[in-house]
Amino acid sequence: MWAYAGVRISKTQQFARRFLLGLSTAGLSGLMIYPAYSAPAAVTAATEIPFDIPAGSLAQALTRFGRQAGIQVSINGDLARNARTAGVSGRMAPNVALAHLLAGTGLAARYSGTNNVLIQKTGSAIALGPVRVGGTATHQDPTGPGVGYVAENTMAGTKTDTPLVEIPTSIYVITKQQLIDQQPQTIQEALRYSAGIYSEPYGSFSSGEAMGSGGAIMQRGFSTQQYVDGLMSTSLTSGEPTFLERIEVLNGPPSVMYGQSAPGGLVDMALKKPTDTPLHQVSVGFGNWNRYEATVDVSDKVTRSGNVRYRIAAIGNTQDIQTNYNRYRRVGVLPSLTWDIDDKTSLTLIGSYSYTPDAGENAGAQYPTRGTLITDGYRRISRSTFAGLTNWNEDSRSNAMFEYQFNHKFNKYINFSQVLRYEKTRQRDRDSYADGGVDDADPSLQYYTPEARYYSSESIAFDTRLHGDIQSGSVKNTWVVGSDFRHYDYNQNNIISSTDAVIDLYNPQATQFTPCMSVSSSSGCNVRGYNGTDSYFQEGVYFQDQIKWKRLSIILGGREDWFTDRYQTYRYRGGGNNQSYSQNAFTWRAGLIYNSSISFAPYFSYATSFTPQDSTDWQGHLIAPLRGKQMEAGLKYKVPGKNILITASAFRINEDHYLISDLVHTGYSEDAGRVRSQGFEVSANANITHDLRVLASYSYTDIRFAKSNLTAQKYNPYTGEYYGANVKEEGKSVPQVPRNMFSVFFDYTLPQSLTRGLGINWGLRYVGSNYFDKVESFKTPAYVLFDAGAHYDLGEATPLLRGLKAQLAMSNLTNKYYITTCGFGSCFLGQGRRVYGNLTYSW
User: Fold this and answer.
1) What range(s) does the Secretin/TonB short N-terminal domain occupy (predicted)?
2) pLDDT digits (tens, 9 = 90+) for 164-183
3) Which of 155, 161, 259, 296 could join 314 via S-S bond, C-beta 3.0 to 4.6 A?
4) pLDDT of the residue at 26
5) How confident is the model at residue 118 (pLDDT cuts 50, 70, 90)?
6) Cα(148)–Cα(747) distance, rounded to whole angstroms?
């Protein structure tokens, strides 16, 4: 039953309209909202008019919108019931205002003429946060999914809810919509289009972790760390994209707020939490390499008032990978509960468990240079070649996590926030690694050394802070005082066989070899390896003040860190090591940014970093902690009236005591002195229209050994030998870091007059060449990759399929054979064409 209201209505009609509105939101079939006064002349979609609609009931907000815009709005009453909106205020086009009113509701507008619009359920009910329009009252959730490809606020840069255009450093947000459109399976894949990030230097990994891959993500030329909800994560599986609401890339030293971290920055991931509006979604997927996947994401109220809400996300996945005899399987669940205790206090509990019986990484994607990089006179080694032993091929992992987030507002000046996470990880790994060629003239035959690793870890991280706002005339201070700590314990048992297996890489087949791996002296195995334990504790005390005066924002912050590490190793067949050491450091940062009246925001910042090290040189001397310093200048531009954010920055980073592998003394590191990374980045995130979203970035990173006394011989990849006199490393490029990277990605939903409900996307990724070693012997070549995809809302074809959406995502569309990096006579191969499709149902 539909209710109508005329342009001029009587009291009886007003009563009838209100009565029918109440009935429809209680469960009648539909509701149509009309202007409550004489409609103005028709406005076009581009005409900007003033809106003032407060937060509250969506049904009431749509009624106000209809009156203010002179537009007839129709909505099914079941959809309007209990739905809420954050409101909108400012001068803008009606279609823009309506889109913001519907943000986060899982609803979308379908226009049927200039002054008629029907509100319907979208095909993918994404819990998008409300947005700020024209500098007025509405506001995005700083840990939420963002809107389209644009996020406006963040907690990651300052641990306070701050607009990106008021932070004097480079921060890039990968929104939920970007994750949906690109369908990455790992964190590395999700970061492919981010400025300043080289996310796959060691090829493609399957299991989703960033930290666990050992430098598998490079940020401004430095190895990065993985954070989850603002706390460092030691989990091997916490980077499951299905469990994430957004990913944030903080480029530059973040030590003041986060403690030990590399000067290149960090990657922070926000886990899914209960949504304010109900969310119900399931999907089934399929792809090449026998991939099958199912996911669930459900969020709803527990109590009638909605002050207690829950969310459950889960995934089951099985697939082969591009390398023969390897598989990837995972099951995982992420339940969460939010309790708004009162209007000033909230508590969120999050737990997760994931089990990955096959991580799909053994033998990786590492092969000799001859047959990959060098094909002059050598046959190319296929990506499907399994360089390992089929009966010695296992990588299983399990991870459990518990987290709570507590917030309380004492008054308008003081707030209290606390986050705690506990993680426990176990890993069992049996594989083999390349140990050189059998015959230098024939690269097809290679020695492979069997190895077994058993690893377990426990960690607890805790962050407590007081923060608030103080207004003094035209000056506003947002202050933070806090303390955090991390405690981490791990045990590792690493056994290496003394007998190698010979594998023919040009004749890939199931190679079986049973190594003797007993550590007993009577076994005669003569294995190598060690049993080791490590326990470290880091505590930091930090402060920060964000000073805002008119259009100028200034950030000042400092931190003192204390770090203690105790580790013990027992080497099989000889010796051990038992050490304890402590390090401490003070780090600070300062920056300013000016938001001009024309929306340009130039900024400058200076920041330092500290990373303790537990590595020793071959003589047993502990290497000093890493100390970094960065200067950064940039410009941010938020296009007025548009969801377009452009960031440009230039930076210079110096880091002392940079670690490299000791080529003479295998298994040890050496202090390379100072490295200098300098360059610039440009990034754009844009919702051009309601149907067109665009990402683009360019990164230039020149990282070199700035001060070093080390020397090394050059390497000839054709002969596999070092040659000539030693060359000084100072002034040479740091290996395995591309100098130039460029990417662009867009998603476009075709106009309804062409093909209603159909959308396409396309992406390009260019990664420049990078050097093999520390003396620039030769380069790994640049490569260009293409990605493509499509999505179709089947509900546009027939109402019977409302809520059902089909999607297809393809990476490396041309199936290009490419090499990511090379080093020490071997190279890593990139991922071939990956095809993934799914069906998603939302209700």
Assistant:
1) 71-122
2) 999 999 999 999 999 999 99
3) 296
4) 36
5) confident
6) 10
Q: What is the pLDDT of residue 482?
A: 97
The full 3-state SS of 197-208, as one line of letters, equals: EECCCCCCCCCC
Closest CA to 805 of 275, 121, 312: 121
Distance CA 711, CA 197 (A): 29
Distance, in Å, from the CA atom of 102 to the CA atom of 116, rounded to the nearest integer, reads 16
Q: Give dist(CA 176, CA 103) in Å, integer.
A: 13
Mean pLDDT of 769-793: 94
Cα–Cα distance, 648 to 653 (Å, whole number): 17
Q: Yes or no: say if 680 and 697 are a contact pair by the CB < 8 Å rule.
A: no
The answer to whether 119 touches 58, Cβ cutoff 8 Å, is no
Cα dihedral 192→193→196→200 (10° resolution): 10
Q: Which helix (H) or strand (E) holds 121?
A: strand 116-121
Where does the pLDDT of residue 619 fall: very low under 50, low under 70, confident under 90, or very high at 90 and above?
Answer: low
- Which residues lie across from 619 on neighbouring strands? none
What is the mean pLDDT of the segment spanning 782-805?
93
Q: Which residue has the tokens 């401004």?
A: 220
CA distances from 286 to 176, 538, 836 (A): 21, 44, 6
Tokens 């106000």 correspond to what residue?
Answer: 64
Q: Which helix (H) or strand (E) holds 334?
A: strand 327-342
Side-chain-side CA neighbours of 198 within 13 Å: the count stands at 29
| pLDDT level of residue 60 (50, 70, 90 thresholds) | confident
Given pLDDT bands bounded at 50, 70 and 90, which one contains residue 282? very high
User: Are 814 and 820 a contacting pair, CB within 8 Å?
Assistant: no
- Distance between CA 520 and CA 598 in Å, rounded? 74
Q: In what order do the strands lie in the sheet with 265-271?
A: 170-174, 244-251, 265-271, 225-228, 231-232
Is pLDDT at 13 greater than 80 in this prediction? Answer: no
In this structure, the chain runs to a length of: 843
pLDDT band at residue 214 under the 50/70/90 scheme? very low
Strands 442-472 and 153-154: unpaired
Q: What per-residue confidence (pLDDT) applies to 136? A: 37
The tokens describing 411, both together, are 């008054």
- Could you tell me the pTM of the whole model? 0.83
**CA-based R_g, the chain, Å:** 28
The pLDDT of 503-522, averaged and rounded, is 80
- Residue whose tokens read 């080694």: 381
Residues 324 and 383 sit within 8 Å (Cβ to Cβ): no
Collapsed DSSP state (helix, strand, coil) of residue 35: coil
Distance CA 178, CA 746 (A): 10
Q: Long-range contacts made by residues 278-282, C-beta under 8 angstroms, separation at least 24?
A: 278/82, 278/106, 279/106, 279/125, 279/127, 279/311, 279/842, 280/125, 280/842, 280/843, 281/124, 281/125, 281/840, 281/841, 281/842, 282/840, 282/841
